[in-house]
């Protein structure tokens, strides 16, 4: 056999021996596998979603009359209280109507009413004279001293004066103090004053100006929204969460909120409303949270991320999710190290959060769960511990909806 072929056979034999030795060594020592050693610790489940700050209600302020803006007294963000002046319209026409109505009342009390009283007295005097003249002519007619025609003229004169006296009396009655004419004029004055007051647009509620849609010189019309005011009251947050979270959500759950503007300043809120309907287009459900003590810097329509705590265990036997296999219907399969070999176990799962699940049955504290896949019964050797995920009380794995 040539020398070079002999060397090749020797080299091949050495390689085969190394492979066989490695296989034997692995079978003796086992496959190196990372693992988790189970322990009990606090476990919290969260749903995270993004939404916006809202107020329970808003007031939309407009004008009851048409007019041109003379002054605007507020800007967006200003705080207002009831009766604060927001806007002033030009009031020349309203003031002219008020002066006209007041002048008519003055004319009534100082001129028309006294003149009506004088007119009543004058017509009563003339009527008395006409009555006496008619009586005198009746007597003369009875004595045959005057014609019937002369008597009829006296009677007609009496009737005319009687009618004039009645008209004067009715006029005086209408113009009397607190009579119908005075009531009408006072109603006109009140109407003019109301019209004048409507040229000053005031806040009817306490709140914050959110928007304004008018400037000095603008023509405003009834029904036009000039200001929008967020009413004082409890601040709320509206979020749309993924509908897959619905089973975990319930009114009364507590939440931690942060805004995009002030991410370092968290504040609490309470979930109080879960919408009965699902947004079919987005696959989300609307949630409403109350903020009992809103920070002074919180503003309408701020973007807010809320972390709602949906469940908590103070001492749960926790297993990282990457050690689970075949998760379905609240159960899973795991591999544990038992007497140097991989042993399969069926476990029941409870709370799931932050990449970690609660083990209800099938494992105990101290068990070492293998991370990875090997055949059951394979000899193994534990490598290094895979470690423990971050505290799930501040994280979540449940799908979350985002606005």
- Structural class given helices, strands, pairing? alpha+beta
**CATH architecture assignment name of the domain at 48-55 and 233-309:** Beta Barrel
N/C terminus separation: 81 Å
Q: Report the top-level CATH class of the domain at 48-55 and 233-309.
A: Mainly Beta
User: Poorly predicted ranges (pLDDT <50, ≥5 residues)?
Assistant: 389-403
The major pleated sheet works out as: 6 strands, antiparallel, barrel
Provide tags for this entry.
403 residues, alpha+beta, Elongation Factor Tu (Ef-tu), domain 3, OB fold (Dihydrolipoamide Acetyltransferase, E2P), six-stranded antiparallel beta barrel, four-stranded antiparallel beta sheet, 4 helices, disordered C terminus
Note down, in words, how this protein is organized.
This protein is of the alpha+beta class. Among the domains are: 48-55 and 233-309, Beta Barrel (Elongation Factor Tu (Ef-tu), domain 3); 58-90 and 199-231, RNA polymerase II/Efflux pump adaptor protein, barrel-sandwich hybrid domain (OB fold (Dihydrolipoamide Acetyltransferase, E2P)), CATH 2.40.50.100; 95-179. It is 31% helix and 38% strand. It is built from 4 helices and 21 strands. The strands form 4 sheets. It has a 6-stranded antiparallel β-barrel with strand order 2-11-14-13-12-15. It has a 4-stranded antiparallel beta sheet with strand order 3-10-8-5, with no helix packed on it. It has a 4-stranded antiparallel beta sheet with strand order 7-6-4-9, with no helix packed on it. Helix 2 (92-142) packs antiparallel against helix 3 (148-174). The protein is rod-shaped. The model is unreliable at 389-403 (pLDDT under 50).
